[in-house]
Specification:
The protein contains 8 helices and 10 strands. By secondary structure, it is α/β, with parallel strands linked by helices. It has one domain: TIM Barrel, CATH 3.20.20.
């Protein structure tokens, strides 16, 4: 009998520890980071960047079923400016790069479920391909066209931010060239879409924590800058303290992984 009691106690302690780990210590701003929604090509070495349509639908449905409200960059700006309050369980769904499958696969799912998303667009690759990727890792993937992006914007389901002109490694450039990539993409995207681009995401996450590069991003006029570092960011956000972190959704992530991400900012124990 003492052995059974000891075993039960150990199980309860283990469950308690896991629950404590899972439970959120602070609300934080939750920003999900996706790339491609679809089926990766055979032999792809970048499968973590692909979320299947079925998983994506299930993940968005999980958010809505658990009381989350998906918001747009413009909603975040209004909250930052004090013009409205964020919903208690606000979440930003973001996509990096601007792939055609964001239009053909992700957008219909978001519309069907009544959710919203945001895309960080690489200006010079619209309607082309992700030529920054090494084709040895994965064949190049088609990017959304300007017309497709405008259609999504007009639906009220998608908004956009910048991901530079050419998806470059910002810290590897001369500072003036890095500054141009960020400022020029903002100018071009605003001209193309007829609205302010208040959000920027650093390609590869590089430069987000390099003070000189981040300073140029803010000087370009972006209100929000987003890293690729895993985590949640306290809200209200202290802009001077650093960029907004995100929660990277991998191709194999389960709903349990998503729950852990939302609760603790990581999906691995």
């Amino acid at each position: 009998m003492p052995g059974i009691i000891a075993a039960v106690v150990l199980i309860l302690l283990a469950a308690s520890a896991r629950w404590t780990w899972w439970r959120s210590k602070a609300p934080g701003l939750k920003v999900l980071c996706y790339h491609k929604v679809g089926v990766p090509p055979a032999g792809s070495k970048l499968k973590d960047l692909w979320v299947s349509p079925e998983r994506f639908r299930a993940q968005v449905k999980y958010l809505l079923d658990h009381g989350y409200t998906t918001i747009l960059f413009s909603d975040l700006k209004k909250a930052y400016d004090g013009k409205k309050q964020l919903p208690e369980k606000a979440v930003l769904i973001t996509f990096d790069d601007g792939y055609e499958n964001n239009y053909s696969v992700a957008w219909p799912i978001l519309r069907e479920l009544g959710a919203k998303g945001n895309i960080f667009v690489v200006y010079n690759t619209m309607g082309k391909a992700n030529l920054w990727h090494n084709p040895a890792s994965e064949p190049w993937v088609k990017m959304a066209t300007l017309a497709q992006l405008k259609e999504m914007q007009d639906s009220g389901v998608m908004e956009y931010g910048s991901h530079t002109m050419n998806h470059v490694h910002l810290p590897a450039l001369k500072l003036e060239d890095a500054a141009w990539e960020m400022a020029e993409s903002k100018r071009q995207l605003e001209a193309a879409f007829g609205r302010e681009m208040c959000a920027f995401a650093y390609p590869y996450g590089e430069g987000a924590y390099v003070p000189a590069v981040r300073e140029k991003a803010l000087e370009a006029g972006y209100l929000f800058d987003f890293s690729f570092q895993q985590g949640k960011t306290p809200w209200p956000w202290d802009r001077a303290a650093g960029p907004i972190d995100r929660l990277f959704i991998r191709g194999g992530d389960t709903l349990w992984d998503l729950a852990l991400q939302l609760g603790r900012g990581a999906s691995r124990l």
